[in-house]
DNA sequence: TCAAAAGTGTTGACTTTACACCCATGA
DNA sequence: TCATGGGTGTAAAGTCAACACTTTTGA
């Protein structure tokens, strides 16, 4: 950012600039988190009932204003921690939504993140306002522009899922290949061929064979795997592919 | 965004909420544009000398604070228009940078966009502050966190270039396959095989054969093409690929 | 006639898809 | 013994990478 346009290269100090810009500190910024979990072969998102009259009976994502002394990313981690009690979580920034009238309280620009977590690790912190896990395929209308935000984040997730080992954040540490495949199918909303899926996973070399078996399944138990330790990471970064 | 945490589902009006949030309107938001052009087989970015003492002699991207009554995207189009006089330009949001101390004047969160334009169409509007086109491969240090922003945008551009018909925004309307290939090579920083490149373009079916030839080249002239009209677009949106 | 780039196909390696059978386990 | 999913291989189609020669034009 550089507001130098039209002034004739007079150097200003940052402090002087600050004063001349007070007018602009009239926009609030928030973060909104698409917190995703996976349960009963369904992808679910953590929602809360909006407490604004304008949106009564609609659900919204979890978000909050960013504090002036808080990094943007830190704000999203704070939301997660406050709501789920979890701290070491996969989180990725997706897009910033900034139309003028997206928030009825005033000018609020929001940066959307998605988070992936193991739903069984979560004890929801405060259980009022209908905080709950909601199947993502079962959402028509939301408060604010949150439906758009949700869709944008799901789109991004789908783009990444085959290239980057991210979805493992949705599973318990140990899982079978069937569970993993079902998760992919839930995310991509499609069916996958079992043999081809297993081949693909073998090629990616993401998994570590635990030499353990499923227990308490009503059929032949499958092998258990975990994500290779080197691939675990808290936030996603992408690599450029060679063309 | 929903600040309902911990309150016992008392509905508030947006107006009431606005008042209680005044404290938070202490963050400014800006947009920064990585404005890219292509000239002499080089990718270039439009830079200006920073007018902050803290960054004297460093260049910065073109950006500005977002006005309270201006959409975020509109702000980036405004920057472009002010600096280049161009209006109908490819522009894409990339990432929002929000660490506390990234701007010495105070808390400024910035959303980065990249723009692609035909450098020959541009008459730079105000030519002070060393506004100029700078080869992207020749930049080490920039004001603020602008080097990171630039790198992030270039990374995103490289990711998109083979999947989406975006780079055509950098070329004149009519171009030869050689020119197009040289552009791809400049963006990707690599050499491409001519035959394979032409095959790939043929498969993508992005180009319309104009039945015209290059003129004034000191060798056998090549055919001229233009991007198919249906594929022209001002801002980029991605599609999910089927897996 | 020379220099420069245009234009063009094939082969081998690899990747992706489609598809079916026997096996191990728990009920 | 039955139901359920585990586990596995192959062939055909398609994609990708490497590679060289002839043609056209302007100088």
Automatic annotation (TrEMBL), chains A, B:
TM regions (residue ranges): none
Pinpoint the NrtR DNA-binding winged helix domain residues: 167-227
Task: Please name the CDD domains in this protein's record.
Answer: NUDIX_NadM_like
Recorded hits in Pfam families, A to Z, give: NUDIX, WHD_NrtR
Q: Where is the Nudix hydrolase domain?
A: 29-151
Domain of life, source organism:
Bacteria
| SUPFAM superfamilies in alphabetical order | Nudix, Winged helix' DNA-binding domain
Q: What is this protein called?
A: NUDIX domain-containing protein
């Amino acid at each position: 950012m550089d507001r130098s346009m039209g002034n004739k290269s007079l150097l200003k100090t940052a402090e002087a600039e600050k004063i001349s810009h007070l007018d602009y500190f009239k926009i609030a910024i928030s973060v909104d988190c698409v917190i995703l979990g996976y349960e009963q072969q369904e992808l679910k998102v953590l929602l809360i009932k909006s407490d604004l009259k304008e949106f009564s009976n609609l659900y919204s994502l979890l978000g909050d204003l960013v504090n002036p002394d808080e990094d943007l990313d830190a704000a999203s981690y704070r939301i997660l921690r406050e709501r789920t009690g979890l701290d070491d979580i996969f989180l990725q920034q997706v897009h910033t939504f900034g139309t003028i009238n997206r928030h009825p309280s005033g000018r609020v620009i929001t940066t959307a993140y998605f988070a992936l977590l193991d739903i069984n690790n979560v004890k929801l912190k405060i259980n009022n306002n209908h905080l709950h896990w909601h199947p993502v395929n079962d959402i028509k209308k939301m408060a604010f522009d949150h439906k758009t935000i949700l869709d944008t984040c799901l789109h991004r997730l789908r783009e990444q899922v085959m290239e980057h080992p991210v979805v493992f954040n949705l599973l318990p540490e140990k899982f079978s290949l069937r569970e993993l495949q079902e998760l992919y199918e839930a995310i991509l909303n499609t069916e996958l061929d079992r043999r081809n899926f297993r081949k693909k996973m073998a090629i990616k070399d993401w998994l570590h064979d635990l030499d353990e078996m499923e227990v308490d399944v009503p059929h032949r138990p499958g092998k258990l795997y975990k994500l290779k330790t080197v691939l675990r990471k808290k936030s996603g970064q992408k690599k450029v592919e060679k063309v």
